[in-house]
Structures are given as C-alpha cells and as structure tokens.
C-alpha cells in the first residue's frame, strides 16, 4: 500500500501556543487508521487542517501525491476527501432519503436553465440519484426510517445517516470525528459493521478520531498517538496499549 494522505511537518499555533508541533503522519490507502491521544493533544486541530477547515502555519499535506495544503473543504470534497462530525449535521426538515439525495454535486436540477429547458435530463438524473440513495439507505440499515424526517432520528441513526452521505459521492478518504459519541451500543455495532464493509467491499480509506478504545481495537490498524501536537508513537493497538509512554500520557506518571 502507498500513502494516500501524507502530512509533513505541519505546525499550527493559536495566540502563540503551538497546538500542532512539527507533526507528520501517513495514512495508507485502503487502511482504517486510528488517531488517538489525551484531551488537548491536537487531534481535532489536525483533523480540521487535513479537512480544509483550518489553515496551517507551515508544513505540507498531500492527497495521493497532490499538494492540497490549505485547499478549502469544498475543493477537497470534489477530490474525494470527506469528513463527518462529532455532532451530526443533518437537514432536519428533509427525510432520511432526501438527505442522501442532497449530497451528489452538480446535479442538473440545481440549474434553473436546465430545469426549464432540459427537464428530461433533470428527471433522469434525479431518478438515478434516488436509486443510489435507496441502495445506500438499505446498506446502512435505515430503510425502515427512509421517509422519516432526519431531525426525528436518534443520535445513532443520525450518525449512520452521516456515514451514508459519504457513500453518495466518489469518496476515497473519509475522516471520522468521534463517530461513536452519543451512540448506543446496538447502533454502534451497526456503525462499526458498516465502516468495516465500506473498507473491505468498496476500498474506502478511513482516518478515525475516537475515544472508544474498543472501537479503535476492532477497526484500526495502525493506531497513531498524538501528544502535545506531535506523534508520540504509532503501531498496532496491542503495541499502543502496552506502551508505557502512552499510559503515562493518558493517566499520568506512575500509572504503568
């Protein structure tokens, strides 16, 4: 495998405080890579930099060899790099199915001219988008609530829906930001199963921030540990769990 995301010597400071400090990581194509660390380690800041939500101060980020440093999120979306959020962002007054149908870019129905002068093309594309949305909603296990307003879904169902939205594009890399937060154990099992299937069956690459170590242990290899804005260690979950430096960073000196 080769690196699809290559973060090189990235730095980011706020008010003179270095939150990300000469940080370099690689995410191999086809992997599910975990990103963990104690609170304040810089995980979310690094995530936001990779996703185009925050500019970096120095360093470089490559996507499959292409320099995407400080490219905006909407441009990265078209390059196949997407992210989810710790708090799901749904269109609450649209149904679950309609939420999925909103995702594909450049739909002809978005153009007033095409709506007026090429209605057949618009209808054909809408039918194809709806067909794909129905496939996705069945895949993620939400077919029974496909016509329910997304705002009425449970927290776990909203997370499943957000994961499903990444399948409505030609996504290559998905950044998952604490997707387990607020999700009950039953739906968490569904989430994990869907991520595994997306990786195994469709080749999605995932970078995962998560505090649920059971989820990290099941999904992620390798696991990268951040501390004070830099990489402390990288390895398998077994290596990470038995590393004295990691134990000290999480629980304090003497914990090991």
From TrEMBL:
Q: What are this entry's molecular-function GO terms?
A: ATP binding; ATP hydrolysis activity
Which UniProt keywords are listed? Answer: ATP-binding, Nucleotide-binding, Transport
Q: Which Pfam families match?
A: ABC_tran (PF00005), BCA_ABC_TP_C (PF12399)
Domain ABC transporter, by residue range, is 5-253
Provide a GO CC annotation, any one.
plasma membrane
| Keyword hit for Manganese | no
Name recorded for this polypeptide: ABC transporter ATP-binding protein
């Amino acid at each position: 495998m080769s690196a699809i995301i290559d973060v090189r010597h990235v730095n980011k400071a706020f008010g003179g405080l270095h939150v990300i400090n000469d940080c370099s990581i690689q995410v191999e194509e086809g992997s599910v890579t975990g990103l963990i660390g104690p609170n304040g380690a810089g995980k979310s800041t690094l995530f936001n930099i990779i996703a185009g939500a925050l500019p970096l101060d120095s360093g470089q980020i490559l996507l499959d060899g292409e320099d995407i440093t400080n490219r905006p999120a909407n441009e990265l979306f078209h390059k196949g790099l997407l992210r989810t959020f710790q708090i799901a962002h749904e269109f609450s007054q649209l149904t679950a199915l309609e939420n999925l149908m909103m995702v594909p870019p450049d739909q002809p129905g978005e153009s007033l001219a095409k709506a007026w002068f090429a209605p057949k093309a618009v209808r054909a594309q809408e039918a194809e988008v709806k067909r794909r949305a129905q496939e996705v909603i069945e895949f993620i296990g939400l077919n029974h609530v496909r016509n329910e307003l997304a705002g009425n879904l449970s927290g776990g169902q909203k997370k499943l829906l957000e994961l499903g939205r990444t399948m409505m594009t030609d996504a290559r890399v998905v950044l998952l930001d604490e997707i387990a937060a607020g999700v009950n154990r039953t739906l968490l099992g569904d989430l994990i199963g869907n991520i595994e299937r997306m990786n195994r069956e469709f080749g999605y690459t995932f970078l995962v921030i998560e505090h649920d170590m059971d989820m990290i242990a099941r999904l992620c290899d390798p696991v990268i540990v951040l501390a004070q804005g830099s990489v402390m260690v990288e390895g398998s979950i077994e290596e990470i769990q038995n590393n004295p430096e990691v134990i000290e960073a999480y629980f304090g000196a003497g914990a090991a």
